[in-house]
Structures are given as C-alpha cells and as structure tokens.
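Illustration 12: THUM3 protein.
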Amino acid sequence: RRRDMAEAGEAAAGPETELAPAPAPAEEGSELSAVIGATVPTGFELTAAEEVQEKLGSASRVSRDRGKIYFEISARCLPQVHRLRSVDNLFVVVQEFRDFQFAEKKEDALKDLEDLVKKLPWSDPLKVWELNNSLKKRKSKRKKQNVQSKERPSKDGEEEGRQQEEDCAHSTSGKEAEEPQGGTSHNGEEEEEDGSQQPEAKEESQAECGSENKAAEEKAGEGDAKVLKFRVTCNRAGDKHSFTSNEAARDFGGAVQEHFQWKADMTNFDVEVLLNIHSNEVIVGIALTEESLHRRNITHFGPTTLRSTLAYGMLRLCDPQPTDIIVDPMCGTGAIPIEGATEWPGCYHLAGDNNPQAVKRAANNICSLLKKSESKESSTSVGIPLDIIQWDICNLPLRTGSVDVIVSDMPFGKRIGSKKKNWDLYPACLMEMGRICTPGTGRAALLTQDKKCFAKALSRVGHIWRKGQTVWVNVGGLHAAVYLLRRTWERAEEKRTFW
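Figure caption equivalent — predicted structure in token form:
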C-alpha cells in the first residue's frame, strides 16, 4: 500500500524529483527527533518492525531495498535503539528522495549529487550523531573502569556509583576499537542476495576525497574547534545509472568536504556519510554504528557461526512463552541458544552438537557472556538458563514429547557435511525432532540452504510436521530459507529410553 501511495505521488509530481518529507527541524526547547535507518537480515524486515513497535512504540516503514527499515524516534531513545536485537547497523537519515531523477549524462548526474549536499538538512542529524558519539564514549569509559577495577580495588565507592549512573544511560551498540570493514558493513550479505535475484548491477565503494598533511591534522585536533575526519560510503543498486559507486562517493564526498571543511580519511574517520542509491531512491545518512550489532554475543567463532540477529529472528518466529523448553540440537558455536537465553530468560534453553570442538566453542561463548553480565552488574551474576551437551542428533537423550520449541541452523552440506549425507541426515533429524517435540503445540524453526533435500525429507515425515511460514534469507551470499514447522497430534515412533 505504501508503495502504491509513493507511485501515485510520483505520477502527480511529474518529472521533478520527489522529496520524502523530512522530519521537522527541532525548535529551540523542543525535543530532538530523528528518522533512524536500520539494516536487518533480509526476510526479517517485518520481524524487526514488530520489535521496534514493541520496544520503542514507533511504526516502521520497510524499504523497497530489501534488508532495511526506517522509523522515527526521540533522540533520548538512542540507547534503546542500540539494544534492539534484530538490527545489524544503524544510521540517522539526513534526507530521503523517493524518486530522484538522474540525468542521462554521467557528468550531469554527478553534478546533481554534488549540488545536493548544500540543500540537505544536516543540522539535526549531526546533533543526533554527536549524542550517539557521547553515549559511545561513556561506554568506552565504563569498560576501562571495569578493567581497572579488576586489576586493583577502588579506593572508595565514588567510581562505582558513577559507573552505575552511566549504566542507566549508556548505549549498547557493542562498538569495539576495531577498524570498520568499509561499505559492506552497512549492507552486508543482503547485497549479495539481491544481486542473485535481479539482473541489477550492485556496487559498494568508499571514495576518499583528498589527502591532508598528518601534522596539520594533529595540530587541528589540538585546537578548540577540532576538524572532523570523514569518509563517504556509497551503496548503489540498479542498472540504469550512468556512474559507478566509486564516482558517486568521490564527487559527493568532495562536495561534503567543501561544505563542512572536514578532512577526508578512509580508515581513521569520525563521521561516515552514507549515500544509498537504489534505482531512483536516494537516501543520505550518517552512520551510528562502526561494527555490526550482530557480533554482540560471540567471541569464539566456528566455520559457520550464525549471526545473532538472524538467530533472534528465528526464535521470534516460534513465539517463545515463559517456561518453554527450547532446544537447538545442532548448536555449533551456540549463537541461537545464547541469543535465546539473553532475550527470553523465562524459558529454559538446551543446546548440543555431535562435534566436541563445537561444544567447546559454545561453552566458551557462554562463559564470555557470563563474564560480560558480571561486569555490567556490581553484584555476582545469577547465571543464565542455558546448558550445553555433546550428543547425537539422531538419538537425543531427551524424553518423548518433552520439548516445546526447536530452533536450529541445519548443515548446508557445504562447509560442514555434504549434500549427499543430507539425504539421510535430514529425514532422521526431523523424525527425532518430532519425537522429542510436544504433539499439537510444539513448533520448530529450521534454517537450511539445501531446500530440495529438506522438502523431500519433510514429505517423508508429513504425519509429524506441518509446514507453516517460510522466510527467505541471505546467509553469507547463499539463498537460504527458514521453515516454521508445527507439530501434529500424531504420535512419533518411540525409541529406547535414557532414563
């Protein structure tokens, strides 16, 4: 419906460029608000929108460009925005153009982008960026205080009290002192999937607009008015543009440098300006995250570690209820059960794997999470409702009908296992999952890229599982699917008891 409304607006506007309504500038004494853009796992845009509505009370708009949502918030809600579980990267929208008319000639099109810089309402978005930056600094300070308190006891309780005050306002963006990975940190794997579905050319590029003397930068940094360093990241999708991403970022960045008198720096930058172009849609934004938020829980990675944001989306599909027993029988490094125990502590989470190395990694990730929760709280952590065990997926040591929810990332047959083995493994897994799952009320969310094999296996156990919703997702450039299954009332075949 929104798309139809936008198209109707385009027809009425004629050939001129249509501007999406920008948020009204904040008047003196009024509360600062902002439109926030968020990248999310493709296919889970509506899940992310539901979480935003639930936790922030804001309605979201799903972008035409898959894997992005937009919502308006008050600037004081920034810490809660960083605590969202379904979003990968965040940026504040400077201006959105839903029907930008690009000139046919490259020079004219690039000149239009350059001229755009002076017309954009930069003031409020930059205030939001500054507020976000101050929250980030508070968190870094808190981390340093935690390290120092472990090394030596505090002389008095002043620092501890100050730390608790900061805990109430700090952002949980999870930014570490790690260099960003360029433009792909904001579109990530979603870009690759879109490219596989449509014949549009997709490019990502950052362009440095010039080089400055390092000594001059240091000198400027010492002054009262520090000169900011920036870079422009361009994400472009579409085959009707006369320019490349690199050219757009270069020329747009040059205009930004001239407008603000900032210094260009590709790696050690303060501000990252985003230029997102999807066909005729142009969105200019300022990045609020340096590193994707999906890295929040995992410290020990395996060959196929699942993103925490995707794990959250799979769990949410199953609508966990308090006291539910949730099992991941092929947990790998534990991304799904750790995310579940963090977000749904009222449930009991059980995870396992047949690979001892995977079980060890998952146990290490759980230990890291416990240490993290201890550092956040001044008192000793009470732990998390999660256990992990080594077992055989086809012969689980669990009672028949004892599990409410099963959520798992099944082997794709690429990095782990093989497509040939999946033909025997998938039916056996589904049978065993059906045995331990509660008849009538049990449900499962299973991720796989081997869709043909899964469909065949599901047809063989159709008396136990009924397929519900299917969510198409992008995992590392692979076109995969999350299948939501419902357990039938049919009794499953009994196996030998472990009790």
